[in-house]
Design brief:
It is a single chain. The protein is of the alpha+beta class. The protein contains ten helices and nine strands. The chain has two domains: 151 residues, Jelly Rolls, CATH 2.60.120.10; 111 residues, Arc Repressor Mutant, subunit A, CATH 1.10.10.60. Helix content is 41%, strand content 18%.
Length: 296
Amino acid sequence: MKTDFYGEIAKPKIPFVVNLRFWEYHRHDSHVQLPFHSHFFWQLNMVEEGQAEFVASKEKLHIELNPGDLLFIPPNCTHLLHYDRGVFVGFSFKMEVHGLTDCADRPIHIPSSPQTIGCVKAIKELLIATFPTNNIFSGETLLNCDDDYSLLVESLLSGLFQRYVAGSGQNATSPLLRNVRQLLLQRHGQPLSVQELAKFCSYSAGHLSELLFQECGLRAKPLIDRERTVIAANFLEFSEMNINEIAEYMGFPNVFAFSAFFRRHTGIAPSIYRSRKRNQLPSDSGPAIQERKKNE
């Protein structure tokens, strides 16, 4: 399958309002057994430490939650959390979200990453600094209309909904695909095994491959190859590295292996792709690009 090269279009800013109603910073262990339940609010769980299993009954969905994970649960989703893997510490926010359109009607799991870990730390520091009492381990907290600190918390929650939930409907990039792209970009397109990706996404290799096929139409290995090809194409079009340097940077054993990989997925050699793309650059490109074209 040959790759169509693309650029992601930034999601439009969708006007919606987050009204926080309840929140809890909790510490649970195996003695806590909560039944299946649902409610009319959006719920966001943010994991600080420990592990738990999330189960959604209607969707027959099982998700292992790990430190740094985010889990968005839509209204009326019947669910429970199993705390049978030791102490589990995290936040749970329940909120009304008005005006949110084109979003998934299923739970959205965002596996741990430097960004999500930073969000968990930020929300904790924000609550420690602004909550009226000294102890944020206070059980479920019902917000009053005069709780000014909630405005700051709602702003952060709105950003998380904009980043991960808004536009998560049928035509959106799936969270799993975003995770594949994020991990490959962090690694500069270097080789990534299905097992490494599965660990990053908190799934078994077989289950991850099946989920990706359902959401993207490709199983894990072909999808990784496609995304690496896109990264290679971007290096060829926009970087100053020569093709040997790109091959080394992306972890190929030599330039011949890189060229064979690129040709297999695009149908053309890297040098031809680079030449065609740079000849398409507009005549009013900046001086650095024009100088680069002139010297090729």
